[in-house]
């Protein structure tokens, strides 16, 4: 499994597109999970990068967290704001694991408060999901073509150009 920090080192192009789109939408992404019957569910959410890890957070007790507790696989897609995908778009696939570290929760909430003003200091999160990235892709358009950059562990990034 690959942490966010490791991912930025082995897939810098895709990480840059993800980071750019994540910032441009105020952190909005779409999280795909699997329901109990195996059908897909998609939910808007705001993942955060903190201490080299991508965190899949949100309100406790949500159906997306029940989905992830049952099956930790996910897809995270940056919010696309135009049909031409002129600013790019990225997808991350992976699994989550719950991290119950109260000192980490305290550092996370302090950082969240400093960066956004949203005050969850003193809260304990259950679950608190760290994302392990298992593959990724990004799309960039321009010059009459579309470049799809694909990454899988051990393979490095590769670009497929479509005209």
UniProtKB/TrEMBL annotation:
<keyword id="KW-0560">Oxidoreductase</keyword>
<dbReference type="GO" id="GO:0016627">
    <property type="term" value="F:oxidoreductase activity, acting on the CH-CH group of donors"/>
</dbReference>
<dbReference type="InterPro" id="IPR052019">
    <property type="entry name" value="F420H2_bilvrd_red/Heme_oxyg"/>
</dbReference>
<dbReference type="InterPro" id="IPR012349">
    <property type="entry name" value="Split_barrel_FMN-bd"/>
</dbReference>
<dbReference type="GO" id="GO:0070967">
    <property type="term" value="F:coenzyme F420 binding"/>
</dbReference>
<feature type="domain" description="Pyridoxamine 5'-phosphate oxidase N-terminal">
    <location>
        <begin position="28"/>
        <end position="112"/>
    </location>
</feature>
<protein>
    <recommendedName>
        <fullName>Pyridoxamine 5'-phosphate oxidase N-terminal domain-containing protein</fullName>
    </recommendedName>
</protein>
<dbReference type="InterPro" id="IPR011576">
    <property type="entry name" value="Pyridox_Oxase_N"/>
</dbReference>
<dbReference type="GO" id="GO:0005829">
    <property type="term" value="C:cytosol"/>
</dbReference>
<dbReference type="Pfam" id="PF01243">
    <property type="entry name" value="PNPOx_N"/>
</dbReference>
């Amino acid at each position: 499994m690959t942490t966010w920090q490791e991912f930025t080192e082995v897939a810098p192009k895709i990480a840059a597109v993800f980071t750019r789109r994540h910032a441009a939408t105020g952190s909005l992404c779409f999280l795909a999970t699997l329901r109990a019957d195996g059908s897909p569910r998609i939910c808007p959410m705001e993942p955060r990068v903190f201490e080299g890890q991508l965190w899949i957070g949100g309100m406790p007790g949500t159906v997306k967290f029940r989905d992830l507790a049952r099956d930790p696989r996910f897809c995270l897609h940056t919010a696309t704001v135009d049909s031409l995908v002129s600013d790019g778009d990225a997808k991350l696939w992976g699994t989550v694991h719950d991290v119950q570290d109260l000192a980490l929760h305290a550092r996370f909430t302090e950082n969240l408060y400093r960066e956004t003003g949203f005050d969850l200091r003193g809260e304990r999160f259950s679950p608190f999901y760290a994302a392990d990235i298992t593959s990724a892709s990004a799309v960039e358009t321009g010059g009459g073509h579309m470049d799809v950059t694909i990454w899988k562990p051990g393979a490095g990034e590769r670009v497929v150009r479509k005209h």
